[in-house]
Design goal:
The chain has helices at 4-16, 41-55, 69-81, 96-101, 115-121, 126-129, 154-159, 171-181, 197-207, 225-239, 251-259, 273-279, 312-325, 328-338, 351-359, 365-369, 382-397, 403-418; strands at residues 27-33, 59-65, 88-92, 105-106, 133-134, 137-138, 141-153, 265-269, 284-287, 297-307, 373-374. The chain is of the alpha/beta class. The chain is globular and about 65 Å long.
Length: 423
């Protein structure tokens, strides 16, 4: 029943022509999400969405799971271009340049309003923010993020007379240990060379003291002697040291090769950690990548992006969803479920991740490696530049070109593509 005071107010508003406050509208969001790494990822994401919708009953979220990162980008952009709704997505952190150039996303700096929102924006690990910060603005928020780590079979280390608590910390130690471990059709080390060859080369280049690109994405250094030496060392694991298979090593099946005992060590994303933990029938360790001139690894994985074609209400709701999914408790849940890095220091202060780290210290290696991590390779015209580098890496590893020839050819292609972007 309406009270007398309320009834009088309504009558007055009708008599004076004052408009009633608009009723709150329900908001529907479509989020495109890549499922490209092992583990029950969709179940975890669905659980997060259900929790968000409970706290925000006026917002409904549809998650569209679209395969790997490339598949997701294609589907999301196709939806936008055909007029279908798409307010946010998790896409490659290295897609930022391309999305900016196509005028498809908005910077988070233009969306956050409150002091609390601005503090949230500053709460992530700087190494994970690097790919999303371009021309003074933040375009991507870390979520499904990783570094490359080294997995190793401790049982095989023991059998070879190696200390299972002392994985190789340098390239020289890597070769020595891999030689001791390679036997009877088993390889000492495998580094994937399909899927993301550029990413693996970046590991060798960083460890040899050289980054592959400038911070503004307008210049690359493929033909630098340190990069050529890094690729030459990678190739030598097969040709000179005989500890790695000839030809290409498949990204998608390397985890299975490791858990099946075909290799004693592998370099792979920490995003596979939980899957390896669940599948391995042996004692295994996780270590930071071995150094040469210095330690280091590129970051990797996906960021949240806000698409430009959203309404103000949709964008505000999408920001609320991203803040919810990146909150320390959810970041900890995600890290435990998948092996991806908790994206903020606060995530590692949660009871869940503290307890998990104590019982399974392998989960802390990728976090610890962030102190020497650099942004994943990305430039303007990133897809074409990256393709040229991928082709160069594979040509060198299969012996169709020398590392120097391959990288100089890739450098020439990249210089041509990036010329319009240089000041």
């Amino acid at each position: 029943m309406i009270s007398l005071n309320r009834r009088a107010l309504l009558a007055a508003m009708l008599a004076t022509g004052v408009a009633f406050p608009a009723a709150a509208k329900d908001v529907s969001l479509t989020m495109y999400y890549p499922v490209s790494v092992g583990g029950p990822l969709t179940k975890v994401i669905d659980g997060m969405i259900a929790g968000f919708e409970t706290e925000h009953p006026d917002v409904k979220v549809e998650a569209v799971y679209a395969g790997n990162y490339d598949d997701t980008r294609v589907r999301a952009l196709s939806a936008i271009k055909s007029g279908q709704p798409a307010q946010l997505s998790v896409l490659f952190s290295i897609d930022a340049y391309d999305l900016i150039e196509q005028d498809l996303i908005v910077p988070f700096d233009d969306v956050v309003k409150t002091d609390a929102d601005k503090a949230w924006l500053q709460g992530f690990y700087p190494a994970l923010m690097a790919n999303g910060q371009i021309e003074g603005k933040t375009w991507g928020i870390p979520f499904q993020r990783s570094t490359i780590v080294m997995y190793y079979n401790k049982d095989m280390f023991r059998a070879a007379g190696l200390d299972p608590e002392k994985p190789p910390k340098t390239w020289d130690e890597l070769v020595t240990d891999a030689k001791a471990l390679a036997k009877d059709g088993r390889y000492g080390i495998m580094v994937p060379s399909t899927g993301y060859p550029y990413w693996m080369l970046q590991c060798f280049a960083i460890e040899n003291g050289k980054e592959l690109m400038s911070k503004d994405g307008t210049e690359v250094y493929f033909d630098d002697p340190a990069v050529i030496d890094g690729l030459s060392f990678w190739r030598s694991l097969t040709t000179d040291h005989k500890v790695s298979p000839d030809g290409l090593v498949e990204w998608g099946t390397l985890r299975q090769a490791f858990v099946q005992g075909q290799t004693a060590m592998m370099w792979h994303t920490t995003g596979n950690l939980t899957a390896v933990k669940n599948e391995a029938k042996f004692d295994f360790g996780v270590a930071e990548l071995p150094a040469h001139k210095q330690p280091g690894s590129p970051t990797g994985g996906g960021n949240f992006y806000l698409f430009k074609n959203a309404s103000d209400e949709e964008r505000a709701a999408a920001l609320d969803l991203i803040k919810y999914m990146t909150a320390p408790e959810r970041a900890a849940e995600w890290s435990v479920a998948t092996g991806y890095v908790g994206t903020s220091p606060a995530a590692y202060e949660t009871p869940a991740l503290k307890t998990y780290g104590e019982s399974f210290p392998q989960a802390l290696v990728a976090r610890d490696q962030l102190k020497v991590a650099v942004a994943e390779f990305s430039t303007w015209q990133t897809a074409q530049v990256r393709e040229a580098l991928n082709n160069a890496v594979q040509a060198a590893l299969t012996g169709t070109k020398t590392p120097e020839e391959a990288l100089k050819d890739a450098q020439a292609t990249a210089d041509r593509l990036l010329k319009p972007y240089k000041n």
